[in-house]
Amino acid sequence: MHCRVRTTEVTAVKTRIRARNRLGSVCTALLCTAALTSCGYLPGSAGHTTTVTVWLMKDSASDEFIKHFTEEFEHKHRSIKLDIRIQEWSGIGPKVTAALRTGGGPDVIEVGNTQVAMYADSGALRDLTLESVRDLGSKDWLPGLADPGSINGAQFGIPWYAANRVVVYNKELFKKAGIARPPGTRAQWIEDTTRLNRGDQQGIYLAGQDWYTLSGFVWDEGGELAVESGGTFTGALDSPAALRGMDFYRQLQALGRGPRNADEAHPPQADVFADGDVAQIIAVPGTAQTIVKSNPALKGKLGFFPVPGKKAGRPAAVFTGGSDLIVPAKADHTDAAVDVVEALAGTEWQTELARTMSYVPNKSTLADAVKGEEGTSAMAAGAAEGRATPNSPQWAAVEADNPIKPYMTQVLDGQDPRRSAKAASERLTDELLER
Question: What is the value of pTM for the model shown?
Answer without folding.
Answer: 0.81
